[in-house]
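Possible regression after last week's pipeline update?

I re-ran a chain I had predicted before the update to compare outputs. Posting the input and the new output here so someone can diff against the archived version. Not blocking, just want to make sure nothing changed silently.
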Amino acid sequence: MKTMLLCLAVGFILALLGCTPEQTAVQVTTTHAVITSPAETPAPSPTPATETPLPPTFTAVSAILEPSQTPSSSAAPLTSTSKPVEATKVVPSPTITQAAEITPPSPLQSVADYPAFLWSPFPPSDGPGSYPPTNLYSALPVNSTEWQIEKSVADLFGSPSMIVSPDRTQVILLTVIDSNGDGEHNVFDISKIYLYAPSNGLFKEIVDNKSSVYELNWLPDSQRFVYAEDTELFSGTLDGSAPQLLASFPDLIVNIATSSNGSLTAISRFPGNLDFWNLDTGTVSQVASETTYDLRMIWSPDSRWLAFNKSVAYGLYLVDANTLAVFEIMAPVFDVAYYLSPPVWSPDSQRLAFTQNRSTLFLWDTTTQHLSEIARSNYVSEPAWSLDGQQLAFTQDDSALYFWDINMQTPREVARGAYRGLPTWSPDGMKLAIGFAGNDRSGIVIFDNSGGTLQEISINGTIEIIRTLKWSPDGNWITFLAAWNDQTGLFIVDINSNEMYMVQETTGTNEATDPFWLPLNVPNP
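New output (post-update):
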């Protein structure tokens, strides 16, 4: 589940033991990086964005459709090994809320996918006690410019996670139930795994686990998954058959990460061990000890390398999955102000990009085992690789967009403006989108990499934050989260017509999370 829940559980355990975790260097033989820096050049001063006519002010044209029927839950009574459950206190399991089927007009050429998102229409919780319910919503197209919001699954508790299958046809939801009957949903309750298939409304519990599930990864076939339950690693299927126990460990499993080909699962254990579980051989290999718990683990696309770190103070390491050799990319610096961004792999798995303290951009080459400094400024955004792996996009000081080319080996400025959020490449790799906000104008800028042109989609008004941009698979739509004048909302923009409107206003509530595009027409699973 969410890191917040896990940290609470670990903190509770440590409080009982009367101790605190210590961060120590990884106990491995490492190869230290040699850093090269580009020539120091003063950063160009920001210039005002070119004024353009403003389109009409955006308006919310969508509305939530309450379900016409809410079938009663048929889930079996809940049980707990820690305390008997009082049936009168148990909050019902999540329920599917199937609205009337929506048939888009035909033909609807410009809409091939629709976004789904999690949202809790309640104010954020003041503390870590009980969490308000979250619902799963779908924005379904009525025509090429209008969408209606449908509540698909209701009453998900405990900051639920949505994990979409590799083929984008099914969703697994990790949520918490009130297993001890105290009226709250927290780290002392049981988490549950549900399957939701949007194409036919199928919603069912697929694992009858008895404790907390913190992590779950799909396998490439979209029919199996791997998950951790306390100290045990399991695999499950969608047909409802009993999960298979893969391995048991002496310590709590905190995080898992499965390689792109599904053959290896990296396991981070409390208080600080890293292991690999091999799907083909069924064996476990210890990779490192005395690391730290709650590692951030990212596999390379070719499943050859695993990068792992913890954002604050810990450093950055790389594991060769073939030899289990561990490379120290950045040494630990035990300072709470020391921050490393999530490392980003190039599509060819040869390079790893990341930022240090949000001010320096680095690049690690797996072939030469060489670390290079790409850019340095007051602020450098997290980078984004192009689809062909030839260019790395990033912003500096919220004022300019840069591309670093592997052939030129130097950054070049491609656009200037008051940019917000992270640059995001389109699925075909030909366009890059980024939010901008400032000078009484805000919106999204789209850079066409093939022709070098800029397309500006503006909102009439000032938006302070534009982030979490998600392209639709066909490259025609973008969703994003925005904040303006103490208001927040989830938006959709059509990059062909420049039409932008609000999908759901979330002002005063929990923010919409996990927006994801799903196919409009898919066969039943």
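Follow-up from reviewer: compared with the archived run. Confidence is low (pLDDT under 50) at residues 1-5, 7-92, 97-108. Marking as no regression found.
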